[in-house]
Write a structure and sequence with these properties.
The chain has 2 helices and 10 strands. The chain has 125 residues and is mainly beta. It is globular, with a radius of gyration of 13 Å. The relative contact order is 0.22.
Length: 125
């Protein structure tokens, strides 16, 4: 399976994207923090179990270093960007039923984390 990690990582590397945004990502050994959810810990510890919502349905995210698990939603990388106005955006580079997909969230409060499929075609495989 071919993941589009090259495009994704190049967009997340500081100074390399056209929007001038900087990211903190697991791909650099960092621990991105989205309003108290620190990755990969929030997924590995179960902190987000039953708290992630995609298209009005609760889903279970599982952290995977290689994408070889049987879980339907495997997160292989995460990155958080601060837009300099205090609002965070977090991207999850995932495998959904072994197909690459990028989820994004801008959820700012509450108990649930709402994600949607990124519409950025450069991030998709």
């Amino acid at each position: 399976m071919q993941l589009n990690a090259g495009n994704w990582l190049s967009l997340c590397t500081p100074g390399s994207n056209e929007w001038g945004q900087t990211y903190v990502g697991t791909y650099d050994g960092e621990r991105p923090d989205h309003y108290g959810f620190t990755f990969p810990n929030a997924i590995e510890s179960g902190q987000l179990d039953n708290r992630v919502i995609l298209a009005n349905q609760r889903i279970q995210l599982r952290w995977s270093v290689d994408g070889e698990q049987s879980a339907p939603f495997q997160v292989v990388e995460a990155a958080t960007m601060d837009n300099q106005h205090g609002f965070l955006t977090t991207y999850f580079f995932c495998l959904h039923n072994q197909q690459p997909v990028v989820f994004v969230t801008g959820t700012t409060n509450g108990d649930d984390l709402y994600v949607r499929t990124s519409q950025n075609s450069e991030l998709q495989a």
